[in-house]
Amino acid sequence: MTNPQWTEVDDYFTDTIAPADDALTAALADSTAAGLPEIAVAPNQGKLLQLLARMQGARNILEIGTLGGYSTIWLARALPADGRLVTLEYDPAHADVARANIARAGLDKIVEVRTGAALDSLPQLEAEGAGPFDLVFIDADKVNNPHYVTWALKLSRPGTVIIVDNVVRNGRIATPHPDDPAVTGTRDMFDLVAREPRLDATAFQTVGTKGYDGLLLARVTD
């Protein structure tokens, strides 16, 4: 579901207040050249992630779902020089592209790309004492969204911000009995958040160059 005017408005926002630079442009170009799906966040959404991380004063960020590292670059640029971002990517080929993009952006000293299933990497992070993370961005396979939010809580602290992307699914999120596992997983995630007393959350719809979708935004309570 797309609308040319949505793209026109997104382009205006991006050109006016969230312009691309060489590293971001190259990250998208190299991701496309490597055959990665063109599902990275839009530039103005990347800038939103960066602003949220800065407002949060984040020093330790976890990203679940790296793809080509485009959103990773936006988030890592919000960190101080001694900050840290751990990003988890299932596909080794995607992870290689992301590492190259992150290095070209000059962020490889503070960003670590871990390869493998996130549900294997997350227990390892817990065992290493990697948390608590100040911000968690979840943008991976939607079937496992409930598990990712559960792990985000385990690796959080009071005040941690958790962001989940692609929660509207072109409006299918409102379907009571969906036949799409991605929608089912996302609805299960909403049910989990709704009954979890440690989370204060909202969600909103977006339109733009990425079509019709939305985000869930949650804060871990005291």
UniProtKB/TrEMBL annotation:
- List the SUPFAM superfamilies: S-adenosyl-L-methionine-dependent methyltransferases
The alphabetical list of record keywords is:
Methyltransferase, S-adenosyl-L-methionine, Transferase
Q: Name one Pfam family in it.
A: Methyltransf_3
UniProt entry tagged with the keyword Nucleotide-binding = no
> Do the record's keywords include Methyltransferase?
yes
Q: Which GO terms describe its biological process?
A: methylation
MF terms (GO), sorted A to Z? O-methyltransferase activity; S-adenosylmethionine-dependent methyltransferase activity
* Signal peptide per UniProt: none
Q: Gene3D superfamilies in the record, alphabetically? A: Vaccinia Virus protein VP39
Instruction: Read off the PANTHER family from this record.
Output: CAFFEOYL-COA O-METHYLTRANSFERASE 3-RELATED, O-METHYLTRANSFERASE-RELATED
Its recorded name reads Methyltransferase
